[in-house]
């Protein structure tokens, strides 16, 4: 293969990856029928707390994505409202025993 062909191939593949990446992102962050809720979580002190909270949330059937941030004392959850409720998320976090969760500023988006 000459250099020009390789270069063309490279540009083509980069474009394909870019398009696939953008499409996947859309699906991951904004699936149809899901909602976002922010939870206030007291008692998180380090990165391990982020992981513990995230794992507890993702164990719930109906939780699509979850992130936790101990610095903000906050978790954000994308979920399927027909399968799981914010109240169940709060209970799952409280059950860990170290944290106290509630709806963040009463916001359910
Ligand atoms: Cu910790």
Gyration radius, in Å: 19 Å
What name is given to the CATH topology of the largest domain?
Answer: Alpha-Beta Plaits
Output the structural class.
alpha+beta
Order of helices and strands: HEHEEHE
CATH class of the largest domain: Alpha Beta
Helicity range: 40-55%
Bound molecules: copper (II) ion
Provide the domain count.
Answer: 2
Tertiary shape: elongated
Q: Order of strands across the widest beta sheet?
A: 2-3-1-4
> Poorly predicted ranges (pLDDT <50, ≥5 residues)?
21-28
The biggest beta sheet reads:
4 strands, antiparallel
On the 0 to 100 scale, the average pLDDT is: 84
The number of distinct helices, counting runs of at least 4 residues, comes to 3
Q: How far is the first residue's CA from the last residue's CA?
A: 54 Å
Strand content: 25-35%
CATH-derived architecture of the largest domain? 2-Layer Sandwich
Give a count of the beta strands, DSSP E runs of length 2 or more. Answer: 4
Give structural notes:
The protein has about 110 residues and is α+β, with helices and mostly antiparallel strands. The chain has two domains: about 30 residues; about 70 residues, Alpha-Beta Plaits. About 45% of the residues lie in helices and about 30% in strands. The protein contains three helices and four strands, in the order H-E-H-E-E-H-E. It has a four-stranded antiparallel β-sheet with strand order 2-3-1-4. A hairpin with a 4-residue loop joins strand 2 and strand 3. Helix 2 packs across helix 3. The N and C termini lie far apart (about 55 Å). About 5% of the residues have low confidence. Bound molecules: copper (II) ion (CU). Copper (II) ion binds next to helix 2.
């Amino acid at each position: 293969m000459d250099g020009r062909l390789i270069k063309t191939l490279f540009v083509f593949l980069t474009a394909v990856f870019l398009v696939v990446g953008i499409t996947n992102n859309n699906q991951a962050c904004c699936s149809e029928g899901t909602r976002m809720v922010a939870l206030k979580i007291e008692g998180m002190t380090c990165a391990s707390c982020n992981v513990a909270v995230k794992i507890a949330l993702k164990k719930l059937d109906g939780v699509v994505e979850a992130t936790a941030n101990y610095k903000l004392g906050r978790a954000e959850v994308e979920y399927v409202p027909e399968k799981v409720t914010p109240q169940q998320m709060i209970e799952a976090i409280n059950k860990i025993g170290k944290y106290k969760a509630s709806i963040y500023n009463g916001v359910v988006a």
